[in-house]
Amino acid sequence: MRYQFKTSYDRDIDLFGDAAQRNWYLALLAVLCAAPLVLEQFWLGELSYVFILSIAAVGLMLLTGYTGQVSLCHGAFLGIGAYAYAVLLQRGVPFFVAAPLASLITAGVGAAIGFPALRLVGIYLAMATLAFNFIVEYVFVHWDSVTGGFSGFAVPQPTVFGYSIVDYPLFYYLTLAALLFALFVANNIMRAPTGRALIALRDSEVAAQSMGVKLTRYKTISFALSAGLTGFAGAFFAHKIGYLAPDAFGILLSIQLLLMVVVGGLGSFRGAIFGALFVGALPSVIALLRDFLPQSVARQPGLEPGLFGLILIGFILFEPHGIEGRWRKLRLFFSQFPMYRVATFKKQKSFTKSERFR
Amino acid sequence: MIALEARELALHFGGIKAVDGISFQVPERSVFTLIGPNGAGKTTVFNLISRIYEPTAGRLIFEGRDITTVPPHDIARRGIARTFQNIELFENATVLQNLLLGRHAHAAGNVVAELMFLPGVRRREIAHREAVERVIDFLNLEPHRDTLISGLSYGVRKIVELGRALCTEPRLLLLDEPSSGLNPEETDDLVFWIQDIRDILGITVLMVEHDMGLVSKVSDHVLALNHGQVIASGTPGAVKSDPQVVKAYLGG
User: Fold this and answer.
1) Does one domain contain both B113 and B176?
2) Distance in angstroms (rounded) separating the CA atoms of residues A225 and A230
3) Sequence-ordered list of residues with C-beta below 8 angstroms from that of A53, at least 6 positions apart, any chain
4) A299 or B128: which carries more pLDDT confidence?
5) Are B160 and B88 spatial neighbours (Cβ–Cβ below 8 Å)?
6) What digits encode the pLDDT tens for the residues B152-193?
7) Which residues of chain A does B168 touch, with a Cβ-Cβ cutoff of 8 Å?
8) Locate the ABC transporter domain: which residues (chain B) (predicted)?
């Protein structure tokens, strides 16, 4: 069994627990960097898509997984990021300015909607964010002069380092770098006082408040950061779909994003990436499956959303901690083999909370 | 010196007078205990001091300054920390993270610097960890440092919550039934800790407590409440034998 022996506070603050963990991640990064040497362009495209979804999922994880605020409008944030970015490109703003600017604009919108949503919890917050998603879709359709209305417009393709941005492997490397940056930023915030304040207000608002956490400030920060990251993903998403139209950013996309963080495992950025990998790869898997299924099943129109729903229900029933929870169990099993106890992760009886002021 | 003073403090929920014009003075570096039967208004007084409730009337003065209108998140920064009757810890975080949150009042946050984790952020983090380790040391929490709260026993959780309050470096500590749910040995430990908190750390303690053994051992002053009003005040011995107090508890 491995034990992380800490000899200084720095060890506890660093991004990686120990050298072994860091080396595993570096090895993974090396494999991802070498992928274009062996993979065809189609698979690089699929991977880039997963990277983009991962950035958005990391953003949503910050809000839903760590701050405990449900959001059904992250599809809209992705859309705002994509539109803002594409419109900036149209106006001749270079890529390296347009992408961060799109992220900032989305963060601003996130803070603006986070503020009225402050007093809402649980199902009411879900309703409010759902309504916001519809409002944003409506704006995309009706703000003709900027968004091109219902028919939308093609995303301009700027050149970066002398290549067109949509060329592979350049686009693959750009999305990989963007994901690394998003993870860096998100992990930084979670190991700083702000991140702890977010976890605190998720678990007990009244205790957080009496420890000096200003609820309005930190909920707004969480919304802004989450929207900012999702808007950043939107910039790359715009290139991935190539043509912006309002129906790409509907409620279904928001639900897919929420599915990612729940299936991946709430409260972990690694879970967000597992979830993005899962949801991003599922349509391809279903497409492959169709060939093996009987005609009557394979040609059902609702096959994909039906399977999505089934999987979500399965996870909630059998593995509430998502893929990340499964991953932890697997890792512990191997690190403690043959001493692993099945009861390690059995949920402990929690004590009643009779007097809560919410 | 008077640490905290309540002047004619009142809180009415409609027709119910939860706290009905009570006044008291908590001397600095003392242990001041509120007792009374269920529903007497003890926890309500705590919630008024930590500003979770808005008083209907009266004033609260902490170290000579009026805190009646201070927002609740500002109370910790002014030097008042509290624990809760039914533990309010952050369940899905480790003991260390819970204690570090106790440092929040001193963690002036610049979000942009934190996003990049600039050297200054790391320097402050290390300073917070040193402060937290002193509390871990004081309360003997070393074995539980990296355990999730959800994996701890009730008694340890109580101590962690006490530790989190100490991490804010308070000058006034509000303890809401610190011994509830503890076994006799843990309650004995608590006696020493409360005495140490007063004598070594020099913190004024205001607590609500039902265990009269604990109250008699540590309290310098006891205030008995019933139906939101003060019925007796004085040393533990005097209050315990006060006929009004006996009547409130036993009826008749």
Assistant:
1) no
2) 9
3) A233, A257, A260, A276, A279, A280
4) B128
5) no
6) 888 899 999 999 999 999 999 999 999 888 889 989 989 999
7) 211-212
8) 4-252
CA gap A332, A341 in Å, rounded: 10
Residue B85 included in any domain? no
Domain boundary among B138, B168, B198: B168
pLDDT band at B41 (very low <50, low <70, confident <90, very high): confident
Read off φ and ψ for residue B246, nearest 5 degrees.
-60, -40
Range with lowest mean pLDDT among A156-170, B114-128, B167-181: A156-170
* Domains, chain A, with CATH or none: 42-342 (1.10.3470)
Q: Contacts of residue A64 in chain B, CB cutoff 8 Å?
A: none
- Tell me the C-alpha distance between B240 and B252, whole Å: 17
Number of other residues whose CB lies within 10 A of the CB of residue B126: 14
How close does chain A come to B238, measured CA to CA in Å?
32
Helix (H, G, I), strand (E, B) or coil at B153: coil
Does B114 contact A213 at a Cβ distance shorter than 8 Å? no
| Single-letter amino acid code for the residue at B111 | V
Structure tokens at A344: 């390690």
Mean pLDDT of A209-218: 90
Q: Considering only B25-29, B59-63, B88-92, which range has the smallest mean pLDDT?
A: B88-92
